[in-house]
Amino acid sequence: IQFWNKNKSMEGLSAKSVVLNFACQLIVFLYLLDNETSWMILASSGVGVCIEFWKIGKAMHIE
User: Which Gene3D superfamilies match (predicted)?
Assistant: First the structure.
Protein backbone atom coordinates (compact mmCIF):
# COMPACT_ATOMS: atom_id res chain seq x y z
CA ILE A 1 0.00 0.00 0.00
CA GLN A 2 2.86 2.36 0.83
CA PHE A 3 4.24 2.11 -2.72
CA TRP A 4 0.89 2.97 -4.27
CA ASN A 5 0.15 5.74 -1.79
CA LYS A 6 3.44 7.59 -2.41
CA ASN A 7 3.70 6.92 -6.14
CA LYS A 8 2.79 10.01 -8.17
CA SER A 9 3.85 8.72 -11.59
CA MET A 10 2.47 5.51 -13.01
CA GLU A 11 5.31 5.28 -15.51
CA GLY A 12 6.18 1.65 -16.12
CA LEU A 13 2.98 0.35 -14.53
CA SER A 14 0.20 -1.14 -16.61
CA ALA A 15 -3.30 0.07 -15.79
CA LYS A 16 -4.69 -2.98 -17.58
CA SER A 17 -2.82 -5.32 -15.25
CA VAL A 18 -4.22 -3.46 -12.24
CA VAL A 19 -7.77 -3.84 -13.58
CA LEU A 20 -7.17 -7.51 -14.37
CA ASN A 21 -5.81 -8.11 -10.88
CA PHE A 22 -8.93 -6.45 -9.41
CA ALA A 23 -11.16 -8.69 -11.53
CA CYS A 24 -9.31 -11.81 -10.38
CA GLN A 25 -9.53 -10.75 -6.73
CA LEU A 26 -13.25 -10.06 -7.12
CA ILE A 27 -13.88 -13.47 -8.69
CA VAL A 28 -12.03 -15.19 -5.84
CA PHE A 29 -14.02 -13.18 -3.28
CA LEU A 30 -17.34 -14.07 -4.91
CA TYR A 31 -16.30 -17.74 -5.09
CA LEU A 32 -15.45 -17.74 -1.39
CA LEU A 33 -18.73 -16.01 -0.60
CA ASP A 34 -20.68 -18.59 -2.62
CA ASN A 35 -18.98 -21.47 -0.80
CA GLU A 36 -19.87 -20.05 2.61
CA THR A 37 -16.24 -19.63 3.68
CA SER A 38 -15.52 -18.39 7.20
CA TRP A 39 -15.95 -14.68 7.87
CA MET A 40 -12.27 -14.22 8.69
CA ILE A 41 -11.23 -15.42 5.23
CA LEU A 42 -14.00 -13.39 3.59
CA ALA A 43 -12.92 -10.25 5.46
CA SER A 44 -9.31 -10.73 4.36
CA SER A 45 -10.33 -11.26 0.76
CA GLY A 46 -12.76 -8.33 0.90
CA VAL A 47 -10.05 -5.99 2.12
CA GLY A 48 -7.89 -7.19 -0.76
CA VAL A 49 -10.66 -6.37 -3.24
CA CYS A 50 -11.04 -2.89 -1.75
CA ILE A 51 -7.31 -2.26 -2.02
CA GLU A 52 -7.28 -3.40 -5.64
CA PHE A 53 -10.21 -1.07 -6.39
CA TRP A 54 -8.28 1.81 -4.79
CA LYS A 55 -5.27 0.94 -6.96
CA ILE A 56 -7.43 1.30 -10.08
CA GLY A 57 -8.16 4.89 -9.10
CA LYS A 58 -4.47 5.58 -8.61
CA ALA A 59 -3.48 3.88 -11.88
CA MET A 60 -6.15 5.69 -13.90
CA HIS A 61 -5.50 9.03 -12.18
CA ILE A 62 -9.09 9.21 -10.91
CA GLU A 63 -9.23 11.58 -7.97
Answer: 1.20.1280.290
